[in-house]
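REQUEST ID: PR-0412
SUBMITTED BY: lab tech R.K.
PRIORITY: routine
TASK: structure prediction, single protein chain
INPUT:
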Amino acid sequence: MKFSYTIVFFLLAAFGALHAQAGVKPPFEMPKQYAVDIATTNASMPQANSTGKFVVDGEKLRADMSTGAGKAIVLVRGDLKKIYMLMVANKTYMELPYMDQANPAKSLFPDGEWTDLGSEAVKGVTAKKYKLVAKVQGVETTSTYWINPATSYPVRVEQGDSVVEFSNFKAGPQAASTFELPEGYTAQTMPQMPSMPN
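STATUS: complete
OUTPUT:
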């Protein structure tokens, strides 16, 4: 299940799973219902580069992602406290341990120290540029966000070696069926991690 863990890790990183400790709220209001295309690159782990689409409605997220290893779908149901990983090639799915920081209503724009860096043109958009300094489990992280002022949504996010670019943003309610497990998929148990010797 190597592909599963890799894509989940980078999907949550791309979505901003940097659940910060208490700090300053973002200087803009994040959209609550939308669909957007996403492309993620990582210089230190190019095998995890991916393209896909996010669909969000409140506490629900569907992410369709493709990498060189194949295609997968992640369903985050914050309303049910559940996360599902669907492997498209063999039509199987696993329920993963729920992480509150994966909840789209809480994760994309975490609390922290937001610094206004002015404006900068990115992909044909005059975006507002911000630096975010936040703490993740006690470790300080720094990210740069380019926000489209017309949508209050990122055009680009950088953190370390990772770059995430967003395009074709469309706001509005999403179909409830988008966030349900599709028919024809078989449940699979999550493999146990090997125990460490004493």
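NOTES: The chain has a mean pLDDT of 81.
REVIEWED BY: pending
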